[in-house]
Amino acid sequence: MPNKPLLLAMAVSASLFATSAQADVILHAFNWKYSDITANASAIAQAGYKKVLVAPAMKSSGKEWWARYQPQDLRLIDSELGNKEDLEALISALKAQGVEVYADVVLNHMANESWKRKDLNYPGKELLDAYSQNAAYYNRQTLFGDLSKGLFSENDFHPAGCISDWDSPGDVQYWRLCGADGDTGLPDLDPREWVVQQQKNYLLALKKMGIKGFRIDAVKHMSPYQIDQIFSPEITQGMHVFGEVITSGGKGNSSYDKFLAPYLNNTNHGAYDFPLFSSIRSAFSYGGGMNYLQDPQAYGQALPDNRAITFTITHDIPTNDGFRYQIMDAGDEKLAYSYILGKDGGTPLVYSDDLPDNEDKDNGRWADVWNRSDMVKMVGFHNAMQGKTMEVMFSDKCMLIFKREKAGIVGINKCGEARSYTVDTSRYELNWHQAYRDVLSGDSETITSRYHTFTIPARTAKMMKI
Questions:
Q1: Which residues are the active-site residues?
Q2: SS3 assignment for 74-92
Q3: Which positions carry the signal peptide feature in this UniProt record (predicted)?
Q4: Strands 51-54 and 444-446, bridge-based pairing
Q5: Which of 201, 295, 368, 408 has its CA 20 to 30 A from that of 31?
Q6: Coil, helix or strand for 464?
Q7: Which stretches of 257-395 are assigned E, i.e. beta strand?
Q8: For the purposes of burial, counting CB atoms within 10 Å of the CB of 212, is it exposed (0-12), middle (13-18) or buried (19 or more)?
């Protein structure tokens, strides 16, 4: 098999995001089998998630997680994680629980099959023969089109060649994503009329199945023209579309200015909030301060509230060696979750993976995060605070305290000793004589005078609500 690709970008478009009044929490069920999501539908809803992002729904082969990002055919759903029938059952089960399904979609490229054939016909003869030999099964998994014929051929791709200048948008958007050791890379689709129409047919078929959002994989590698041609109003109407363009910061950072800013300016899509993630990592770093998180958006270090997918970890970070430096300390990651789930603005994403032992470099660290007791409590706080504005009451190197109108208070202390701050509750209009209960510890405190001192234990968050 070829070396796994670097898969640098993920993107999705949110055409009507502004019509969604609530920024519901998305569970990214990364590499989960569709049947496992279906089996957990009730638990997912009870944990407070309103959206689930599932693995790419298409034809792919191979047990490795990265094989899901190497499409062999867009016309049907059949992979190690499930088929069309499995996805239909998943959508139905989650819908019954009031949970919507988002699909990860791969449109930039097709699978690297140079290890077994020289042509660029997709699907290859091997698959076309399989379709013919087991027609009843494959017909049940078909989304659109005629499986007796091919989908793409050599004329549907950019010329072969690997990206050489990762700082050049033209280079990144035209040439192939390649691995090491002479890997010829992922054949890069040319947005000619035939290709675009098949991709639109694919997205419309998923939408017809009941998919409510798209995450566009590798959007950094797609030209603005290509994105605009595919994601027409017909596709985006009523959908939440967003994607990942990995940057090292916000405004002023080269990767932001050259890749993420143009994507946001040229579309109405949402995007993973890597500028905020950089601010979070800086805040929790040695020498950094929680005051970095007081209002990062004001300095271009966080995306606008209605465009942002907020997170503390994405699937690319632990699974690609080049990004593993961005993994946060486990304790800091929990505190960071209390920030993104406690604050106003953005759509929080909770990452939980199901990787085989030979691909899991972190001993199952994120496998059960979605249903962990503290996570469920934080998601519940987020849901209870929907639509309530946020105001920072105090921040310094160690501590950040903010309120959600009168209904909630969040305090985060990253330092190794307890910290206290006295708040003027008249100035900040907090409720007196009503207990604020910390959803994480169960402790409560009641304000009985104008000046109230909040104490946050070392390396702890409090998420208090009436």
A1: 217, 244
A2: CCECEECCEEHHHHHHHHH
A3: 1-23
A4: unpaired
A5: 201
A6: strand
A7: 270-272, 308-310, 347-353, 390-395
A8: middle
